[in-house]
Design goal:
About 35% of the residues lie in helices and about 15% in strands. The protein is of the alpha/beta class. It has two domains: about 200 residues, Glycogen Phosphorylase B (Rossmann fold); about 170 residues, Glycogen Phosphorylase B (Rossmann fold). Helix 1 packs across helix 13 and helix 3 packs across helix 4. The longest helix has 17 residues. It is elongated and about 70 Å long. The two termini are about 30 Å apart.
Length: about 400
C-alpha cells in the first residue's frame, strides 16, 4: 500500500476518514498552507475519529511537522501514506492500488479528495463501494469547463468544499454544478504569527525607506500571473505621488515578469519609487508587513490569504472588486475594492488609505474583525460543522 507512517499509533479499526492530496510537504504554496491549516483544525476537534492521509507526491522523510510530535495524543489521530515514486508516472498507479486496498479493508466513513486532478480516481474507487466523497476546490483550477471525467467527479460528489463565494459561483457556472452541493471552508490566519508592530529599522535601512509612506504587495512575479496587479499599481504611482511625494512601493516576490515591471517603472519615471525585494521567507513576512503603511493588490484571487495576513498585522488593504477577495474584505467592510485593471481607481483608493480617517484604516479594529471570522478557531468551528 506504500510506506505508511502512523503519528502516534492507535487502533487501526478507528480510521473513519481518508484525505487524499497531491502534495503538502515537499513544496510551498497557498494550497499547501491551506491544507496544513485544515489538518491542524481537524486535530483541534476533540471528538473526531482517526484519519489517514494519502499523499501522491510526498515521500517518507519529508518535512512533515505532524510527525515531529509522535507522542502527542492529539496527533495520534493522523496517519500518513507516502506514494511518491520514480519514475513519477508510477505514483498514480501506486496511489490507486494503495487507496483501493485501504478502502476494501477498512471501509472508511468518508473520503476527502484534496484536488480536482485526483477526483476521477477517488470517484472510481469510492462509488462502487458506496463510500461518499467530498472534493476540495480552491480557485482557478475549477473556474473553466473541466474535462468530462473531472466534471462528472465533481457533479457526483457528496459535497464540494471551496474557499469563497466567488469560487463557488465560477465553478458552478462553468461546470453545471448544483450550488447547494458546495459549502464554504475559507482560508484562515494565525493571529499569533501575524501581529502588528513598529516599523523595523533594519528593513527601513535595507530598502532605503526612511521617511517614506510604504505601499506593499506580496505576489509571484510570473508572466502568467499579471492578474496580481503589480503593473497596475506601478501605473497608479504618478498620480499617488502628486499627493504623497514620499511614497515608495515595496514589491515582495520573484519571477520572470520582474524585468518588464522594472522597465515599466523606468518608462513612467517612478523607478526610484519602486523597490523589488525579491523572495522573502514566510517567517520574515511579518516584519515586512510591519514596514508598510498599506497593502495593495488589485488582483483576481480565489480568496487571497495575503489580505488576511496584512489585516492581522493592522494594515489597510486594497483588492480587486470582482474576485474571491470579497470574502476576506467582507464585501468592502474591511478594505477598498476597486476595478482590478484601473490605475486611476487604484490611485484614488491609495490616496484615501494614506490620508487615513476611514474606519478601514483602524488597525486594531481590522485585526479584531479579521480574526473573529478567519482565525484558526473559526476554521476549526467551520470544519466541525461540515463534518457533522
Amino acid at each position: 500500500m506504500g510506506e505508511n507512517t502512523q503519528v502516534g499509533q492507535t487502533d487501526n479499526s478507528a480510521a473513519n476518514y481518508v484525505f487524499v492530496f497531491l502534495e503538502i510537504f515537499e513544496s510551498e504554496g497557498g494550497i499547501q498552507s491551506y491544507v496544513k491549516d485544515i489538518l491542524n483544525a481537524y486535530l483541534s476537534l476533540p471528538d473526531r475519529p482517526r484519519a489517514e492521509v494519502f499523499l501522491l507526491r510526498d515521500r517518507p522523510g519529508c518535512q512533515n511537522p505532524f510527525e515531529k510530535t509522535r507522542t502527542s495524543k492529539k496527533n495520534s489521530r493522523l496517519g500518513f501514506h507516502y506514494m511518491k515514486t520514480q519514475p513519477r508516472q508510477l505514483g498514480r498507479c501506486r496511489l490507486a492500488a494503495g487507496l483501493l486496498l485501504f478502502l476494501l479493508q477498512r471501509r472508511p466513513q468518508h473520503v476527502f479528495c484534496g484536488h480536482i486532478h485526483l477526483a476521477p480516481l477517488v470517484q472510481m474507487l469510492c462509488q462502487p463501494l458506496g463510500i461518499p466523497y467530498t472534493v476540495l476546490t480552491y480557485g482557478k483550477e475549477v473556474w473553466e469547463p473541466l474535462p468530462e471525467p473531472e466534471r462528472k467527479a465533481l457533479q457526483q460528489a457528496d459535497e464540494i468544499w471551496t474557499i469563497s463565494k466567488f469560487s463557488r459561483d465560477k465553478a458552478c457556472a462553468a461546470n453545471k454544478l448544483n450550488p447547494k452541493q458546495v459549502h464554504m471552508l475559507p482560508c484562515a490566519i494565525d493571529g499569533k504569527a501575524f501581529t502588528p508592530g513598529s516599523k523595523p529599522e533594519a528593513l527601513i535601512e535595507r530598502y532605503n525607506l526612511a521617511g517614506a509612506k510604504v505601499l506593499m504587495t506580496v505576489a509571484r512575479l510570473w508572466s502568467g500571473d499579471i492578474y496580481k496587479g503589480v503593473d497596475v499599481t506601478i501605473r497608479a504611482l504618478p498620480e499617488i505621488l502628486q499627493v504623497f511625494p514620499e511614497v515608495k512601493y515595496l514589491v515582495i516576490g520573484r519571477g520572470d515578469d520582474q524585468p518588464r515591471l522594472a522597465q515599466l517603472a523606468q518608462d513612467l519615471g517612478v523607478a526610484d519609487r519602486v523597490v523589488f525585494a525579491g523572495f522573502v521567507p514566510t517567517e520574515e513576512l511579518v516584519e515586512h508587513y510591519r514596514v508598510a503603511d498599506a497593502y495593495i493588490m488589485p488582483s483576481q484571487e480565489g480568496f487571497g490569504i495575503v489580505y488576511l495576513e496584512a489585516m492581522a498585522c493592522g494594515l489597510p488593504v486594497l483588492s480587486g472588486d470582482n474576485d474571491g477577495s470579497a470574502d476576506p474584505l467582507q464585501d468592502g467592510l474591511l478594505g477598498w475594492r476597486v476595478p482590478h485593471r484601473k490605475p486611476d481607481a487604484v490611485a484614488k483608493a491609495c490616496i484615501e488609505m494614506l490620508k487615513g480617517g476611514d474606519r478601514r484604516c483602524d488597525g486594531r479594529w481590522l485585526r479584531e474583525q479579521t480574526l473573529a471570522k478567519f482565525g484558526k478557531d473559526a476554521l476549526a468551528s467551520r470544519l466541525n460543522e461540515l463534518l457533522k
